[in-house]
Amino acid sequence: MNLRSMVLVLVGLMFVTGAFAQDGLTVIWGEDRADHATLDPRVTQSRHEEQMILQIFDQLIAQDENGNIFPGLAESWEVSDDGLSWTFNLRRDVTFHDGTPFTAEAVKFTFDSIQDPELGSQGAIDILGPYDSTVVLNEFTARVNFRRPYASALTAFTETELSIVSPTAVRELGNDGFARNPVGTGPFKFVEWEAGLRVVLDRNEDYNWAPEFYNNEGPSQVERVILRFIPDASTRVAALEAGEINIADLITPLDLLNFESSDRFVGQAANVAGLPFSIMFNTTRGPFQDIRVRQAFMHAVNRPVLAENLFFGFADAAYGPLSASTPSYWAGVEELYGYNPEGAMALLEEAGWVDTDGDGIREKDGEELSLFFPVLLEPDTAVAVQGEVAKVGFDLKVENVLKARQDELIFANDYDLLVIRWVSNDPGVLIIPFHTRNIPAPGKFAFNWARWSDPTLDQLLEDAEAATSPDERTQLYEEIQTMIMDAAIFFALHNQVQMIGHTSEMSGFRFAPGNWQVRFYDVSAN
């Protein structure tokens, strides 16, 4: 039996369950990560968890895959002249999956609870920005107040993390219970979650408030959604080819090329907005405390060649803290830290790192230029980087880790570099990995993994967050990107690209804003 046949047999054994006997149209999503910890939009920072959260919840304002804005749970909204208040006029025909009505009180409860430290919000607390309070004006009118103008507010209200949750369900279940039994207003209801195996959702038969950019109206034609955890890409594709799933997440570039000439399968690829796939250097320990070492590392990697070799043209090299498809992207980053191994070696020599014994690894004061690189995402990319920097004298120790292990290392400040990426349609995302307030600490999970503290940068990030003039905002974000690159704390590798494959027997799979998660509401059988 060949390897592919063995894979198909194993996949078949994994997926023989009653779910496949379900009457009606069933979408079975092959997911590449099995370490889901929550399905609470207020808590998550994981694009993997958001894949199911997206189907369960709605937002006040809706956004299609092209960035166009539409009414969502709010029929209309008004912004005060000073930019400090947003007044939402809410739909009156919406109910949560638990049967309770959606009202202004749910908006207040959701946003207030995000601020509660006991919740442990990892994404929404930053996306909500300088939130102050929500005032219930009447049953279907809510006024959201900010401490200062918040230029990213319009986009923020469309984000999955700011989905509106059922206050009744949270109060009955508690935060931990709600994380595993989420209740929203979206087109699909939560049914069950078997850790490490699957998540099951069923159609919301009462759903009649979809944003107008959808083709469908009323309940979805999809009766059931099943997420299957299949970490290995080749196994996901094998499951798709065997008919055990009908859409596969994050397929390989070679599979995408094959699907382009297939009648049975359709491949879709999209460039992802936000932070590109990048490395953050820990500036508080080891060799990366020296900016010259950080600069040398960046000069040692040929990013265009790396991207071409790994992605066959589907992903471009990235050069700065924002991907090229993100608003306020500054093209000047493309001129910085080009491939220059000779320059890298000169910087290391200047910093005192030399190869004294001829083994190819540089040393200083009896210590080798050895760096610990725990890797949660794209291990092949990490290995390729390891090979590149070895040529100039770095000993990069790559260790593949699960998220729980990565979180432990972050809390303990026990790493030299980490990979990061973030899906966002707004440059305001930069405050999440670069503001001093987001430096991690024991018990405090946050994303400034460079552990970089610069009051001037902090102020610029806050000023950009508050800027209401588009020109001023663009100028501020150019200054921010310049400061980040001048400090050499962030090393972009390639623009993110999401590649999915699905059966040609279905259509209507739509990317969500940012082009990573996929919406299933419009799916129908061909």
Structure notes:
By secondary structure, this protein is of the alpha+beta class. Among the domains are: 58-181, Dipeptide-binding Protein, Domain 1 (Dipeptide-binding Protein, domain 1), CATH 3.90.76.10; 274-495, Dipeptide-binding Protein, domain 3 (Roll), CATH 3.10.105.10. 30% of the residues lie in helices and 23% in strands. It has helices spanning 3-15, 47-56, 104-114, 124-127, 153-156, 167-180, 233-241, 253-260, 291-299, 303-311, 341-350, 379-390, 403-412, 431-434, 455-466, 470-487, and strands at 25-31, 61-63, 69-71, 74-79, 85-90, 131-138, 141-146, 188-194, 198-203, 222-229, 247-248, 265-271, 274-281, 363-364, 367-368, 370-375, 395-400, 417-423, 490-494, 497-503, 506-507, 510-511, 518-519, 524-525.
Reconstruct the topology from this structure.
Elements: H1 3-15, E1 25-31, H2 47-56, E2 61-63, E3 69-71, E4 74-79, E5 85-90, H3 104-114, H4 124-127, E6 131-138, E7 141-146, H5 153-156, H6 167-180, E8 188-194, E9 198-203, E10 222-229, H7 233-241, E11 247-248, H8 253-260, E12 265-271, E13 274-281, H9 291-299, H10 303-311, H11 341-350, E14 363-364, E15 367-368, E16 370-375, H12 379-390, E17 395-400, H13 403-412, E18 417-423, H14 431-434, H15 455-466, H16 470-487, E19 490-494, E20 497-503, E21 506-507, E22 510-511, E23 518-519, E24 524-525
Parallel strand pairs: 1-10, 1-11, 16-17
Antiparallel strand pairs: 2-3, 4-5, 5-7, 6-7, 8-9, 9-10, 11-20, 12-20, 13-18, 13-19, 14-15, 21-24, 22-23
